[in-house]
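Obj: model holo form, ligand = 4-fluoro-L-phenylalanine.
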Amino acid sequence: MDSLEKQTKRDQWGSRTGFILAAMGSAVGLGNIWKFPYVAGANGGGAFLFLYILFVLLIGIPVMLAEFSIGRNTQRDVVHAFQKLAPKSPWVLAGILGVVATFFILSFYSVVAGWTLNYIAQYTVGGLGQAANTNYGEYFSQFISHPLMPIFWQTMFMILTVLFVYKGIKNGIEKLNKVLMPTLAVLIVGLAIYSLNLDGAMDGLKFLFQPDWSVLKDPSVYLAALGQAFFSLSLGLGALITYGSYLSKEEKLPSASLTIASLDTVFAIIAGLLIFPAVFTFNIEPGAGPGLVFITLPDIFGNFAYGQFVAITFFFLLAAAALSSAVSLLEVTVAFVIRQLKWTREKTAIFVGVLVTLVGIPSSLSLGIWSEIKLLGNLNIMDSIDYVASNIFLPLGGLLISMFVGWGWNKRDVLSEVNFQTNSLGTLWLISLRYITPIAIFCVLLYSLGII
Ligand code: PFF
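Output (holo structure tokens):
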């Protein structure tokens, strides 16, 4: 134990369930309920879902297990974890990439999460949902292009995020997720059942489950599916290395990874079951983009007897799911800064939180008064940051993590860290980390950079 660890004893999860729920809290978020439906919608539905599940099984679960192993073994933040396992080697770049990428992802993630807070407020006191025939599409575009309101709500959301990180692992993050995750599960299943009774349910189900294989000729579908799998499972950036670092040695990592990845995928599919029947019932374009959840769902709520109440509950829980993911994003940088600069958790959480909020403002403005500014090709600021962080940094981080555990770390240590019951499972895992994952990610990355 070095002197810093002696001075500030690192917090740990209070229980196995607490850890699983926190990791699920990180995984289940806007990525499942907001992003998955519109990315699936824009990439052909069923065939995209097939690819997505394939990537989760072949690549997602092995990389998740790799992240937990690095974290638990080292009990360090993402940068210092690599420094500890491979001193003075370039592997530390994977850690630095993680800190930079989580920082930028949180900057735009908090903008979208702020929208959910606005919907709660507008449904509660702002009169939204009370007038019949409200044009929700118009309402949404007016709101997100407003120069001040979205920034106000983004700031509110960041204040909440900082609060839970400020309180620490056991008293902040773990307690938050223990309440929120089960509640969110009940509500989303209830809403999906309602949605499946709408007129457009069959068309919605066909869209999601009947693959049109011809879309697989388009290589960008592979990139989208891989990027979405990494994003949704919170992989590639060290969020799960960080969470794994608060684990005790008794935890069984393989079964935890399987549980978390499966439940995250189930959440995404249920979100699809909730959205697509409504999309087809209300004649909305499935590829309508980021506004899908904010326009489609209010249409469903308009049909409920207690629609306004359900809407408030839904957006509350969406905000909550976003919060539990945002907390894990912020924790990556906070854990790094605490160790690097030897600051207190409280000071670090506030400092990093303020920085992220400021960096997020241009993303928010890029949907309104700064919409003319294009960074990458034709993409505005927010989409450019999302593209680089989700489609390039995430897979690249995943590539480095899998290569490190597969090739860079002593094989015996790796296998004893994950305590696989049988050798054959351990071998399969290493095959994925050594060959399948790097080759798949490499091909997809080359494509995304326009090289193949
Ligand atoms: N998995 C989260 C979601 O689906 O919304 C987003 C996320 C959290 C991505 C943490 C990456 C991360 F490190």
